[in-house]
Specification:
381 residues; L,D-transpeptidase catalytic domain-like; alpha+beta; disordered C terminus; 55% helix; disordered N terminus; two-stranded antiparallel sheet; 8-stranded mixed β-sheet; 3 domains
Length: 381
Amino acid sequence: MRSISCTFLATGMLSMLLLTLPGCSQKVPIDAVEAIESLDRQLVESQGAAYAPEAYARFIKQWVALKRQLQAEEDEIVWPWETNPLLAELQNVRVEGEEAVAQSLAQRETKRLETAARLTLLEGRLRIFNSRVDDMGSRVVLGRKPVETALLLHQARSFFDHGLYDGSVQTAKQAAGMMEVQTAVLTTTLGHYANERRVHAWRRIAQQTIEWSRAHHTAAIVVSKADRRLTVYRNGLQVLSYPVRLGYNGILEKRYQGDGATPEGRYQIIRKRDRGHTQFYRALVLNYPNNEDRRRFQQARQAGRIPADAFIGGQIEIHGGDDLLMSQTLGCVMLENWQMDAVFKEVESGTPVTIVGALKLTNSIALALAGLDQTEEGEEG
């Protein structure tokens, strides 16, 4: 062995010789070791084990082995004319570390950009989704799902901001999955608005009501829930048309008391209530429930589609303002007060009122449902 241990330099003359030789030094320069330790820390910070696993594993394997060798020979010195065998190994480890850091940072940046793009796309999808749900007035159909989806997406954004890209992707996937579930619920619940046979049936009974107005030279009312519009006809001709508000669950067909849905079918005004005789501004009381409503209610109860203790309810009206909360719970049709004044003058007890889901296949709810499908296709692409 050409190098000698410092512990064996016991003689005074040899010791003096060592002290006077500037080239006598330890085998491992401290700055070379610190450079590799710095690379080790960079790999931990850049998550090298995740983003450059093979390069990271090679570096760690060589670095651990070299550290053991350094610890075993830390007291050795070399003469100026001797070759330092550990310097070459240190350089190799350093090169491995630098390559691992470069790969890790590059892969991490790629992941960051991919995650950012995915998150931005999903956030845009959610904004469009929520807009279409609001357009349909169907938020209540979904319960807490929209809130839970928004919370998941917020969490995904928080993971991203903290550099936890895998967590962000997984949470974003959960949010996307919840949106798919909501789309399925809406399609199942409101799909009849896009059903040609159902829309044709609605249009037919609305047209029959208009024809009745023409034949009897009197007024008739048609309400389209999808369009949220009430139209008054006289002698078969349109004389008034106003936007309306429905119950909180108004786009669904009413099934029982308190469901917030607005009924569909053929009705009549059975009473006009002027100011002071109703909790609303003015009101037109409809003959809900009629025989068809009772038949459907009994069938739904027997089939277990409604609560066993539910009642069919009543008090469905076309009215003006005031008690908004009650009107939303009942599932009424609401007008502005000045609009209610105009309608009130045009109609009498016995005036037919037909309430339908939609009058055309390209109604707002059918279009919104189609838009939800398109956002799904955009995400898959």
